[in-house]
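Figure 3 (text version): structure tokens given as input.
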């Protein structure tokens, strides 16, 4: 009888401790969310302010919501051009990254040779190299080949961004590729499919989750990329949003409201992408379409 009372009391204490721990976690999460949401909310409110309202008080409510700040940022500050440059650069980089990543991870997962093992080790080592160490050598190399002049700078950045992201994405997709059923690939080879047909018609449809993950992470990385853009792009006509925003923030003739409007324009696409594809991204990270065999 005494033992049962002791056990029940222990269970009650454990439940109380679990409830307390759960509420502590909830409070911490709420505080963390507020720390993230407040700066975003403040930036949105500031984007509608006039210069006079901002100087009167950075945290005060605007006397009038100026939607013209967004029009001025989009047209007057040439953000429409920067926006389409970023879209062009991002889409090109994503396509190159997906093809390079899935092609390389497929070869590493399904072929065995000394060169393939060396390639696997090389990607693992390259993943640990800080990208900033490669920035100046890459810039000098591309300048010697005149790949940073005029419109050629955006395709150059596509390739460079893709190359620097591929090692990590290969590490991410290799488990999916190794989980593919070899019998399916062998059956396709017996039916007369060549290497490219097997890859594009059989492998790619079976690895949609990692392909989606690579595309989404690559999109976010390139859209927010800053260092390489301001280093390689010298002609203002080919500025991306990050480079254009940097140029805009240092211009003393442009009001604070317009600058924050430009900042919101830069953030909106990535926020929409995450809002739409958050759940598929989580599902893709926790599941594999490959059928082991």
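Below: residues designed for each position.
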């Amino acid at each position: 009888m005494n033992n049962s009372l002791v056990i029940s009391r222990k269970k009650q204490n454990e439940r109380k401790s679990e409830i307390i721990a759960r509420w502590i976690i909830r409070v911490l999460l709420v505080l963390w969310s507020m720390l993230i949401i407040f700066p975003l909310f403040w930036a949105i409110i500031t984007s509608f302010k006039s210069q006079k309202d901002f100087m009167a008080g950075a945290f005060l409510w605007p006397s009038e919501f100026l939607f013209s700040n967004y029009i001025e940022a989009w047209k007057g500050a040439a953000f429409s051009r920067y926006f389409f440059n970023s879209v062009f650069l991002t889409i090109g980089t994503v396509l190159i990254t997906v093809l390079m990543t899935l092609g390389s991870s497929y070869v590493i997962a399904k072929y065995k040779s000394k060169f393939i093992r060396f390639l696997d080790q090389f990607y693992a080592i390259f993943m640990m190299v800080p990208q900033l160490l490669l920035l100046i050598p890459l810039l000098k190399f591309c300048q010697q080949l005149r790949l940073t002049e005029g419109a050629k700078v955006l395709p150059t950045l596509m390739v460079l961004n893709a190359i620097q992201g591929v090692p990590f994405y290969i590490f991410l997709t290799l488990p999916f590729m190794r989980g593919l059923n070899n019998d399916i690939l062998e059956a396709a080879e017996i039916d007369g499919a060549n290497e490219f047909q097997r890859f594009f018609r059989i492998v790619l449809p079976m690895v949609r989750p990692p392909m989606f993950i690579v595309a989404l992470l690559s999109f976010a990385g390139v859209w927010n990329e800053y260092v390489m853009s301001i280093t390689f792009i010298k002609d203002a006509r080919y500025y991306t949003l990050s480079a254009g925003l940097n140029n805009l923030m240092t211009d003393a003739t442009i009001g604070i409201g317009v600058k924050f409007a430009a900042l919101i324009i830069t953030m909106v696409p990535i926020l929409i992408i995450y809002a739409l594809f958050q759940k598929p991204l989580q599902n893709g990270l926790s599941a594999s379409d490959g059928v082991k065999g």
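The CA atoms of residues 150 and 235 lie 7 Å apart.
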